Amino acid sequence: MLARAQDGTLLVARLLLAAALLPTGIARALNVSGFALTLAGAGMPFPNGVATAAVVVQVFGPLALILGVLPGLTGLALALFAAVTAFVLHPFWYYVGPAAVAERTLMLADLGLAGGFLMYALSGSGALSWQGWRAGTRAAAPSAKPASAKASGKGSAPRNAGKRAAGRPPARAAA
User: Fold this and answer.
1) 55 near 115, Cβ under 8 Å?
2) Are the C-beta atoms of 61 and 81 separated by less than 8 Å?
3) Which of the residues in the chain have pLDDT under 50?
4) How far apart are CA 175 and CA 173, in angstroms?
5) Which residue from 26, 109, 111, 31 is spatially nearest to 60, judged by alpha carbons?
6) What is the DSSP letter of 142?
7) What is the dihedral sign for C-alpha 113, 115, 120, 121?
């Protein structure tokens, strides 16, 4: 019962973390050149390449997060993305007054997301995910095999059990 609640909580957490990035990622994917101009204005070198890479991370990262694919890699990539975004797009130290407060708030929000992604990378995606489904099918596969069929009595030995080629060890009977 507790494991189910934990898996459900991990699913909700993954959905909420993905909801923080996916809408912005889709909007940036629809206007990559505008995002590149924003990055160029922030002094980012190679803004077109960085914008394209950021859009790929910001769209496919949350999708991998929702599905629970490769939680360690996905969590670390999204944490790195959120931390870099915090420092590049929200340099509050350049501002004064209410603008500085707003930029600092946005930066801390991005750093909070990075922390959430790191916790996801360490905790995993839970059973309600692609990884959980794959782990369940791998764990169920060995138990799906029939139990060892070593029956006692007549007929349990292979037909040619007494006949063996010289120099070769006996073959095991198939289950």
Assistant:
1) no
2) yes
3) 149, 151, 153
4) 6
5) 26
6) H
7) positive
Rounded distance between C-alpha atoms, residue 38 and residue 15, angstroms: 28
Nearby residues of 10 by Cβ (< 8 Å), 6 or more positions away: 123, 124, 125, 126, 128, 129
CA–CA separation, 23 and 155 (whole Å):
67
Are residues 89 and 40 in contact, defined by beta-carbon separation less than 8 angstroms?
no
How many Å apart are CA 33 and CA 112, to the nearest integer?
A: 27
Nearest C-alpha neighbor of 44 from the set 82, 81, 88: 88
Taking alpha carbons only, the member of 88, 141, 126 closest to residue 110 is: 88
CA dihedral 123, 87, 35, 37 (to 10 degrees): -160
Which tens digit of pLDDT belongs to each residue from 85-110? 899 889 999 999 999 999 999 999 99
How far is Cα 63 from Cα 16, in angstroms, rounded to an integer?
12
